[in-house]
Write a structure and sequence with these properties.
single chain, alpha/beta, D-Maltodextrin-Binding Protein, domain 2, 2 domains, five-stranded mixed β-sheet, 13 helices, 12 strands
Length: 338
């Protein structure tokens, strides 16, 4: 699954090296603000959750290209971390203002007292799934003895107990296989019976490889909490001292999200033009089309609620990953949303 601590991550750097590297990158990234402005623009230093751009960056690229940030008097300087475990530390250190990361990162940050907070939900639901080869049914009641590719990230650790409970099994009754890079490749090569991943990453990879849809059994089917997987984050002190600026940034980003949902092909074309490293456009389009339905919640884009966060924290506590469930306001705020 493409979340913190897994998948195609680069070699880990020490804390000081990672923060220093990001500081340099963010300085250079100020040139990517989406074009010159007639008046001086305020730069927002934005750090992504992944070492390179991919389709989840689509709304940011659209907001840059279509001038939503420019109209708000903002330039968004995008930087990419040296590894997938750096974003929260970079924010906490003050080397960036706003970030994008998995919601589990916020729960861990709160448990360790790091001064960051979620300021807007990117996705609203939990699309983590068991993934099977096209045409091969996944039966929760017949998982015993199956080889299941699992990553070592926090999200997978939080989700697998729900799978086992629904299946009526103990972990010793399945054959977990640690995936260090790409478990979909392992699945298609028949090295495992089942993979685990978010649907928006599993589907485009399977479709791109075999031109068929994978079999999916996703979070609601095994009783996992329906919580955001990815969120926008900010350094708490910076957010409190720049409330108007953060509101403008979130509003412009929300416009980018809405336009990208309405115009997926054009949006992905903008992403590819602004960030060529995203690679195959067809892969990005399928991934974005799988992501788009997850963006809007009951109150619209970006809004979060307490139940989402306490549900996630409880799942992490139950699996021994955090010591306690803290008040929901420790994890998130809607104060900067219009």
């Amino acid at each position: 699954m493409r979340t913190t601590g897994m998948g195609r991550a680069l070699a880990r750097l020490g804390r000081s090296a990672a923060v220093a590297a990001l500081g340099t990158a963010l300085g250079a990234a100020a040139l990517l603000g989406g074009g010159g402005a007639a008046r001086a623009a305020t730069t927002i230093r934005f750090v992504y959750d992944w070492p390179s751009a991919d389709f989840l960056l689509t709304p940011i690229a659209v907001a840059q290209s279509r001038g939503y940030y420019k109209a708000a008097g903002i330039k968004t300087a995008v930087a990419f971390p040296p590894n997938t475990e750096t974003t929260a530390r970079v924010l906490a250190s003050g080397a960036a203002d706003v970030g994008f990361e998995g919601s589990t990162d916020i729960a861990f940050a709160a448990a360790h007292g790091l001064p960051i907070i979620s300021v807007g939900a990117f996705t609203q639901g939990n699309n983590w799934c068991l993934v099977g080869r096209p045409g091969e049914k996944i039966d929760l009641h017949h998982l015993a003895g199956k080889s299941i590719a699992v990553f070592t990230d926090s999200w997978t650790k939080a989700m697998m107990p729900f799978v086992l409970k629904a299946a009526g099994l103990k972990e010793s009754q399945i054959r977990p296989v640690i995936a260090t890079d790409d478990d979909i490749t392992m699945l298609l090569a028949k090295k495992v019976d089942i993979a685990t991943n978010t649907a928006n990453y599993a589907v485009p990879e399977v479709v791109g490889a075999v031109h068929q849809q994978p079999t999916l059994v996703c979070a609601p089917a095994f009783g996992a909490p329906d919580v955001p997987v990815w969120v926008f984050t900010a350094r708490t002190a910076w957010a409190k001292s720049h409330p108007a600026l953060l509101r403008k940034w979130l509003a412009a980003t929300g416009k980018g999200m809405a336009w990208s949902v309405a115009h997926p092909r054009k949006a992905v074309a903008i992403l590819a033009k602004l960030y060529p490293a995203t690679g195959d456009v067809s892969y990005s389009l399928i991934g974005w089309q799988e992501t788009a339905p997850l963006l809007k919640g009951k109150r619209g884009l970006l809004f979060q609620d307490a139940a989402q966060w306490t549900g996630l924290a409880q799942a992490l506590k139950n699996t021994g990953q955090i010591p306690a469930v803290l008040p929901a306001a420790t994890y998130f705020t809607n104060a900067y949303l219009r």
